[in-house]
């Protein structure tokens, strides 16, 4: 058996015990005195552990040919390190070379700085770098913290389907799922594709959101959340959009918009705290190399209340701020990323919850406000990235929901199961969706969602 390097560097294993680590060489340095210093990493923490290899080992000559990326098993005594910045090291008495790197000169991940674009083109090798290693651990920490947060509050995790027939957001950005022969599509008399011959006997798509299914379980289990992949055939080539991304969607019975705005704030503070407590090593790297304020801003957001502003007031702020935007601002327009970022970065200098948007720019399921013009919707917007959460109170009144379906030209029959929830014991309920990659990009300061998911799917690109 062997130890994770994180356990050794943390001091969880007694000094002077015999240990084995298994991992990959980051760097090697040989001293004139006949000692080779190996930095070995295994992904368990930011720092590699140093193995001190004396030339008394009978494969010492082979050890001095090790290069970045070679795989090894090192056994020896764990001792306190005299060297700077290292707490513990291993005095090796055995180095088992498992896999060499053929032709180190052309090894794509040789130990030097690579551009982020270069790393994207080598997505299968990039987890070997410091940076993507750190992203991977922070992403995991955030995912675990999210599950913990909801578990502690008694929410049940529901797995909603990935293949669906309904377009939750109504934005027409769904990927079709079909087994029909594209060269030879069955047609009806009018020449339209006949999906009754398709696998499910009707049209089917990849889900854009688990919300509608989540609402059915919320209407019986009270507090639920989903955490799974969602898909959007969105034609936007930006640093915030993926075609495949993960969403966290809590849905809460007997809750209004303010209740879930509070839930969103509590959740974000909880996960920020978890990252600060558990991934200090990685966050120090991001603060040094990627985003100076990576740690300090999380610390300050955990302390202070998020700002809250009504859409209508936000429009006034933007109109009167004196800044020239690419997209003009007036009541009724959807806020663009530049507007969101101005509000969060310049005006409020904090994450901000924007509430009560015009109903015409929002989805059919949002609850109409008394004014007849707005719906009880909210977005949480963060400095540096813009919208990370979108949510709303849901329309729980059947007559108003039906009127809205009709107004938007949607077929009532397609929503019969959704309407049932309003017929049988309806309750006010609310929920939101957190874009998980946007959260990770924000926390790490990485800035581009393509660098915080293992194998990004974007328009024109689905390698691996
Ligand atoms: O605002 P959206 O579209 O809301 C919904 O889908 C609701 N049904 C959620 C709910 O109320 N249960 O998406 C929610 C979040 C956005 O705020 C954004 O963070 C993220 O999902 N998101 C994307 N992330 C990466 N790439 C994309 N193409 C995204 N589209 C949305
Ligand atoms: Mg949205």
From TrEMBL:
Keywords: Aminoacyl-tRNA synthetase, ATP-binding, Cytoplasm, Ligase, Nucleotide-binding, Protein biosynthesis. One of its GO terms (biological process) is asparaginyl-tRNA aminoacylation. GO terms for molecular function: asparagine-tRNA ligase activity; ATP binding; nucleic acid binding. CDD domains: AsxRS_core, EcAsnRS_like_N. It is found in: Cytoplasm. Residues 137-456 form the Aminoacyl-transfer RNA synthetases class-II family profile domain. The keyword Transmembrane does not apply. It is an enzyme of class 6 (ligase). Its EC number is 6.1.1.22. The keyword Transferase does not apply. It holds the Pfam family tRNA_anti-codon. It catalyses: tRNA(Asn) + L-asparagine + ATP = L-asparaginyl-tRNA(Asn) + AMP + diphosphate + H(+). It comes from the Bacteria. GO terms for cellular component: cytoplasm. Belongs to the class-II aminoacyl-tRNA synthetase family. Homodimer. This is Asparagine--tRNA ligase. It comes from Pseudoalteromonas tunicata D2.
């Amino acid at each position: 058996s062997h130890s994770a390097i994180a356990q050794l560097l943390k001091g969880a294993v007694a000094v002077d015990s015999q240990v084995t680590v298994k991992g990959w060489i980051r760097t090697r340095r040989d001293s004139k005195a006949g000692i080779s210093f190996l930095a070995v990493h295994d992904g368990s923490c930011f720092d590699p552990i140093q193995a001190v290899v004396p030339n008394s080992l009978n494969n010492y000559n082979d050890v001095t040919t090790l290069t970045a990326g070679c795989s090894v098993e090192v056994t020896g005594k764990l001792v306190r390190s005299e060297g700077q910045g290292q707490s513990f090291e291993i005095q090796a008495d055995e180095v088992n070379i498992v896999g060499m790197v053929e032709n180190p000169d052309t090894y794509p991940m040789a130990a030097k700085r690579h551009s982020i674009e270069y790393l994207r083109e080598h997505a299968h090798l990039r987890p070997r770098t410091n940076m993507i290693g750190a992203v991977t651990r922070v992403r995991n920490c955030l995912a675990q913290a999210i599950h913990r947060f909801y578990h502690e509050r008694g929410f049940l995790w529901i797995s909603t389907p990935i293949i669906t027939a309904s377009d939750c957001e109504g934005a027409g950005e769904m990927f079709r799922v079909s087994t029909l022969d594209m060269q030879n599509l069955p047609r009806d008399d009018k020449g339209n594709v006949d999906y009754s011959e398709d696998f499910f006997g009707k049209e089917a798509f990849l889900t854009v959101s688990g919300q509608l299914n989540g609402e059915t379980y919320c209407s019986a289990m009270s507090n639920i959340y989903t955490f799974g992949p969602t898909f959007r055939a969105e034609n936007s080539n930006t640093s915030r959009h993926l075609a495949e991304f993960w969403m966290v969607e809590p849905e809460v019975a007997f809750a209004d918009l303010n209740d879930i705005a509070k839930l969103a704030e509590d959740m974000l503070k909880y996960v920020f705290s978890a990252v600060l407590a558990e991934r200090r090593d990685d966050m120090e790297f991001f603060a040094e190399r990627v985003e100076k304020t990576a740690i300090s801003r999380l610390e300050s957001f955990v302390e202070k209340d998020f700002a809250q502003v009504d859409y209508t007031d936000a429009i006034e702020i933007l109109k009167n701020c004196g800044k020239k935007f690419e997209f003009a601002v007036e009541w009724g327009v959807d806020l663009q990323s530049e507007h969101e970022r101005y509000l969060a970065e310049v005006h409020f200098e904090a994450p901000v919850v924007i509430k009560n948007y015009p109903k015409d720019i929002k989805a059919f399921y949002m609850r109409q406000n008394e004014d007849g013009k707005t719906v009880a919707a909210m977005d949480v917007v963060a400095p540096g990235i813009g919208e990370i959460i979108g949510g709303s109170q849901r329309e729980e009144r059947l007559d108003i929901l039906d009127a809205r379906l009709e107004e938007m030209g949607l077929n009532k029959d397609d929503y019969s199961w959704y309407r049932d929830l309003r017929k049988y014991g309806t309750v006010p309920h609310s929920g939101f969706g957190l874009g998980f990659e946007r959260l990770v990009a924000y926390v790490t300061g990485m800035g581009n969602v393509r660098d915080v998911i293992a194998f990004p799917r974007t328009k024109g690109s689905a390698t691996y």
